[in-house]
Amino acid sequence: MFKAIVSAETLTSALDSISVLVDECKIHLEEDGLEIRAVDPANVGMVDLSLDAAAFESYEADGGLIGVDLSRLEDIAGMAESGQLIQFELDEETRKLHIQIDGLEYTLALIDPDSIRQEPDIPELDLPAEVVLEGKDVNRSVTAADMVSDHIALGVDDGDESFYVDAEGDTDDVHLELTEADLIDLQAGPAHSLFSLDYLKDMNKAIPSNTEVTLHLGEEFPVKIYFGFAEGQGQVTYMLAPRIQSD
Amino acid sequence: MSDWTETYRPTTLSEVRGNNKARDKLKEWAETWDDHRDAVIVHGSPGVGKTSAAHALANDLGWPVMELNASDSRGADVIERVAGEAAKSGTLTGGESGRRLVILDEADNFHGNADYGGSREVTRVVKSANQPMVLVANEFYDMSQSLRSACETIEFRDVSKRSIVPVLRDICRREDIEFEDEALQKIAEDTSGDLRSAVNDLQAVAEEAERLTVDDVVTGDRDTTEGIFDFLDTLIKEEDAEGALKASYDVDENPDEMLNWIEDNVPKDYQGAELADAYEFLANADRWLGRVRSTQNYSFWRYASDNMTAGVAASRREPKGGWTRYGPPSYWRKLGSSKGTRKTRDAIAERIAEREGTSVGTARREIMPFLSAMTHHCKNRELTVRMAATYDLDEKEVSFVTGSGKSTNKVQSIVEDAEELITEQTVEHSGSAFFNASDSETDPEAETDAKADSPAGDEASQAASDGQGQGQETLVSAGEDGNSSSSDEPADEPAETGAPDETDDDQSGLNDFF
C-alpha cells in the first residue's frame, strides 16, 4: 500500500538528485519515508537519498518496492506548477502508479524492480577530512574548474587549515582556496584526490545554492557529498570514486 | 523455471569448464595486471564461457564489474562516458588503488547508427585505461588491427564433449533428474562445442521428460543455422526447387543479402541457357525486393525468396558436382570502392540537369555518355573547354568526363581556359551594358587563343565563330577530325544515333555559348 501527497518542489528536487546518475531506479516505500539508492552504469558514482514522511503533506506506506523510469516521472512532476500538490496512489494489482495533479490524472506503468541494476552497498569509508561549505561555493569551484579541464583535484591543506580546488588544463590552470573564514566548518586532515568533472558537474546541478554541503575527503579516496533539501527532511549523500592519477 | 544457464553460471574461475589453459592464462593476466597494464581480448565461439569466465574472475578477485554489452547502445559518446570513466576511475570502496574489471561484451559487434564510432572509441579507451579491461569477442579478426595489437589475446576453444558431459551430469543431479548417460552424450555431441546450448538443450528436454533417455533427446533436437556456404552448395548443386527453398529457411541471412550471395556465385557453376534462366528468376526476386522497399510490405519477401532459391534451383539443367570456391558478394565492396566516382558523377549530373532543365537521372544516363564520347581524352579540345565552362567543371570533373588524367597539363590548361572563357563571357554580357561595344574585340581574341592552343580544334572553333545554327555540324566534324581511330566509334555513335533526339538536350546548352 502506498498513498502520498507531496509538493511539486520537493518531488522535483528528489528526482533531480537521482536522475543525474541513473535513468531508472528502485524506490523503497518505507513506513517512515522514501529511500532510494543507486549507482551509475560505470560504477563510479553513487547516490543514497532519503525523504522523510514529514516532508510529505500526507504519507502512508508499508514497505513496498517499486521501479520507476525517472525521466517519465520528472516529466510528470514538470506538469505541476510551483506550489501545486501531487498525489500518488499505488495500484498493487496492476502494478501501476496513479498520479494526480489537480484535474490531471496520469497512470504510470512501473518497471519490474528485478530488471533494474542492483542497488549498491554503501561502503564504509574512513575519511579523515571534513569540509562544510555553502552550495554556491561548490558551484563556483566546479564552474571555475570546468573552464580549463575535465578533472578536478579536491584537497585540504593540513597546515594552512584550508580547502582547495585545483584544475590543470593543457595550457591553463585554476586554483581556488577557501580558508576557515570562507567555510562554515573545517576538520583538517590529509586529503587530496582527483575527480571527474563530468560527474561533479551533474551532482552540482542537484545541490541547491543556499544549502549547507558537507564534503568528506581522503587521500586518493572517494569523496562523500552530503546535503539536505526540503527543509532538512530530505537527505542526499553522493559518493564519487576518484580518478586514477596517470603517470 | 529460471534459466539453467544463469542458475549454473560459474561463480568462480575454478568452476569454468573446458579451456583450462585459457582460464589459467586469464587468471595470470589479472594477477600480473599491475605490471603490464594491458587489456585482454578473450575470443572464441559462442557459448564456450568467455563472459562467464570474465565475471568469475572478477568475483574471485573481489573486483566490482562494469559491463557494456550489445543490448546497450554503444555509440562513441556512451563508450567514452561509461567505459571511459570506469576505466579511468578508482572504486567506491577502495579509492584509487581499488581495481574494477571493465568487461566489454561482443567487442567485435558494433552495429549501425546506434553504435556509430563505437569501435574506434573502444580502441581509445583501451589505450588510456587505468583499470583492467576484458574485451569479449567471437571473431578475433573482426576487430581492428590497432585494437588487436593494443591487447593481449586469450583464445577460448570449443568445449569438448568430454568436458560437457560432466557439466550436464552435475546439473541433472542437482535438479534431481534421472538420466541415461547416453542421453547426455547425445546432447553434448549435438551441440558441438557450445556448452551454453548444451545446457539449454538439457533444460528443454528435461522439462518434458521424467527420465532422460536417448529418445527424448532426438525429439528435442534444436534448430541449427546453416552456413551460407553450405547453403549455396545445396542450392546450386544438389537440391530441387522445394529442397532449396526449405534449406533457405535455416540460413541466417535476410533476402537482400541472400540475393547478393546467390547472384555473385551462381555463374561459377551455371552456364549458358540455365544461367540465363537463373538470372531471370534473380531479376524477379530483385523486383519483389524493390516492391518490399517501396511498399514496406514485408510479406512480399516470400516471393523474393521463392524466386531466388526455388527458381534458381529449378533452372539447373546439367548435374553439378565437385567443389567450387564461393565467395562473399562483391556488391557492397563495389559500392564502397566506387563511392568517390559516383559522387563526382552525381555532382556533374546535378549541374548539367540544372543547366539543361532535365532530371538528374536523365543528365546522368542520357547526356553524360554523349559528352564523354565527344570529349574523349580531350581530343576535341575546344569543345572540352566549352563544356568545362558551361557546366563549371573543375580538374577532377573534366578528367572524369573525358577520361584524361586529372593532374595532366592538358586537363589543367583546359580548366584554366574554361575559367577565362567564363570571365570573357561575363564581360561580354555585361560589356554591352556598360561599354556599349567590345563584342568585336573579344571575339577574335578568343578565336586566336583557341587556335594557338589546339590545332585539333581549329575547324571547330572556326565553325563556332561562323554561325550559331550550325553547332550540330561543328560537333560532328570536330569529332571526326580530331579523333584517332581508337576514339572514332564513341564519337561517331552519338552523332549518328543520338543526334536527332537525345543530343538536342545538351546541344542547347552548348549553343548558348556559340
From TrEMBL, chain A:
<keyword id="KW-0238">DNA-binding</keyword>
<dbReference type="InterPro" id="IPR022649">
    <property type="entry name" value="Pr_cel_nuc_antig_C"/>
</dbReference>
<dbReference type="InterPro" id="IPR000730">
    <property type="entry name" value="Pr_cel_nuc_antig"/>
</dbReference>
<dbReference type="GO" id="GO:0006275">
    <property type="term" value="P:regulation of DNA replication"/>
</dbReference>
<dbReference type="GO" id="GO:0003677">
    <property type="term" value="F:DNA binding"/>
</dbReference>
<dbReference type="Pfam" id="PF02747">
    <property type="entry name" value="PCNA_C"/>
</dbReference>
<dbReference type="InterPro" id="IPR022659">
    <property type="entry name" value="Pr_cel_nuc_antig_CS"/>
</dbReference>
<protein>
    <recommendedName>
        <fullName>DNA polymerase sliding clamp</fullName>
    </recommendedName>
</protein>
<comment type="subunit">
    <text>Homotrimer. The subunits circularize to form a toroid; DNA passes through its center. Replication factor C (RFC) is required to load the toroid on the DNA.</text>
</comment>
<comment type="function">
    <text>Sliding clamp subunit that acts as a moving platform for DNA processing. Responsible for tethering the catalytic subunit of DNA polymerase and other proteins to DNA during high-speed replication.</text>
</comment>
<comment type="similarity">
    <text>Belongs to the PCNA family.</text>
</comment>
<keyword id="KW-0235">DNA replication</keyword>
<feature type="domain" description="Proliferating cell nuclear antigen PCNA N-terminal">
    <location>
        <begin position="6"/>
        <end position="98"/>
    </location>
</feature>
<dbReference type="InterPro" id="IPR022648">
    <property type="entry name" value="Pr_cel_nuc_antig_N"/>
</dbReference>
<dbReference type="Pfam" id="PF00705">
    <property type="entry name" value="PCNA_N"/>
</dbReference>
<dbReference type="GO" id="GO:0030337">
    <property type="term" value="F:DNA polymerase processivity factor activity"/>
</dbReference>
<comment type="function">
    <text>Sliding clamp subunit. Responsible for tethering the catalytic subunit of DNA polymerase to DNA during high-speed replication.</text>
</comment>
<feature type="domain" description="Proliferating cell nuclear antigen PCNA C-terminal">
    <location>
        <begin position="184"/>
        <end position="242"/>
    </location>
</feature>
<dbReference type="InterPro" id="IPR046938">
    <property type="entry name" value="DNA_clamp_sf"/>
</dbReference>
<dbReference type="GO" id="GO:0006272">
    <property type="term" value="P:leading strand elongation"/>
</dbReference>
TrEMBL record, chain B:
<dbReference type="InterPro" id="IPR003959">
    <property type="entry name" value="ATPase_AAA_core"/>
</dbReference>
<dbReference type="GO" id="GO:0016887">
    <property type="term" value="F:ATP hydrolysis activity"/>
</dbReference>
<feature type="compositionally biased region" description="Acidic residues">
    <location>
        <begin position="489"/>
        <end position="507"/>
    </location>
</feature>
<feature type="region of interest" description="Disordered">
    <location>
        <begin position="428"/>
        <end position="514"/>
    </location>
</feature>
<feature type="binding site">
    <location>
        <begin position="44"/>
        <end position="51"/>
    </location>
    <ligand>
        <name>ATP</name>
    </ligand>
</feature>
<dbReference type="InterPro" id="IPR027417">
    <property type="entry name" value="P-loop_NTPase"/>
</dbReference>
<protein>
    <recommendedName>
        <fullName>Replication factor C large subunit</fullName>
    </recommendedName>
</protein>
<dbReference type="InterPro" id="IPR003593">
    <property type="entry name" value="AAA+_ATPase"/>
</dbReference>
<dbReference type="Pfam" id="PF00004">
    <property type="entry name" value="AAA"/>
</dbReference>
<dbReference type="GO" id="GO:0003689">
    <property type="term" value="F:DNA clamp loader activity"/>
</dbReference>
<keyword id="KW-0067">ATP-binding</keyword>
<dbReference type="InterPro" id="IPR047854">
    <property type="entry name" value="RFC_lid"/>
</dbReference>
<feature type="domain" description="AAA+ ATPase">
    <location>
        <begin position="36"/>
        <end position="160"/>
    </location>
</feature>
<dbReference type="GO" id="GO:0006260">
    <property type="term" value="P:DNA replication"/>
</dbReference>
<comment type="function">
    <text>Part of the RFC clamp loader complex which loads the PCNA sliding clamp onto DNA.</text>
</comment>
<comment type="similarity">
    <text>Belongs to the activator 1 small subunits family. RfcL subfamily.</text>
</comment>
<dbReference type="InterPro" id="IPR023935">
    <property type="entry name" value="Rep_factor-C_lsu"/>
</dbReference>
<comment type="subunit">
    <text>Heteromultimer composed of small subunits (RfcS) and large subunits (RfcL).</text>
</comment>
<feature type="compositionally biased region" description="Polar residues">
    <location>
        <begin position="428"/>
        <end position="439"/>
    </location>
</feature>
<dbReference type="GO" id="GO:0005524">
    <property type="term" value="F:ATP binding"/>
</dbReference>
<keyword id="KW-0235">DNA replication</keyword>
<keyword id="KW-0547">Nucleotide-binding</keyword>
